[in-house]
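Thread: Newbie trying to understand structure tokens

Hi all, I'm a second-year student working on a class project, and my supervisor (Dr. K.) asked me to get a predicted structure for one chain before our next meeting. I've only ever worked with sequences, so writing a 3D structure as a token string is new to me. If someone could post the tokens and maybe explain what I'm looking at, I'd be very grateful. Here's the chain:
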Amino acid sequence: MTREEWLTEAVLILDAQVFAPVMDGVIPDLPYRVSCSFPGGPGKKKGVVGQCWNPSASGDGTTEIFISPVEDNPIEVLDTLTHENVHRIVGCKHGHKAPFKRLALKVGLEGKMTSTHAGEALKSKLTEISEELGEYPHAKVTPGEGKKKQSTRMLKIVCPECDNVARQSRTQNITYGLICGSCECKMLPVNMEA
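---
Reply by user tm_fold:
Sure, no problem. This is what the structure looks like when written as tokens:
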């Protein structure tokens, strides 16, 4: 089973076992896709672990749900997926307002509506669902891991007389400056904002 198959199966089970009981068994039959991807887009904050996109954003009118690959704990993934499915069911246009809040509280989500978490009863149910689904086929992704960190940002220093170019750290430039080796003029930084 792939991550996406696991997540899609999880939505079906959540619909049947978490949402249907509080919605008199009637869940809107709207097309959706769910995948493991970095949530993002215009105006989105860092640290977002899930996101539900309005069907109008998709070329084929499908609600798109994204679960962040930084999550690998199946209970936390199901918790996030529950939150995103509230958006799917009530409609993304409501954001975290009253329609979202009503359904979120009914299914057992608690806390600030923009960053809910499963209450004890829901967490217990999510644990059962996790056992039913089996292991989440995903390994946590750590952004930036393995990337070489930049040590010193060098300024571009230019001679105003002969356009000779050199590089120097900001601290060194402020403390000592540079003198052009060709015309012995004081060299000036051209990218102090860097």
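A couple of things are worth pointing out once you decode it. The beta strands are 32-36, 50-53, 63-67, 109-110, 117-118, 154-158, 165-169, 188-189. DSSP finds five helices and eight strands in the chain. Feel free to ask follow-ups in this thread.
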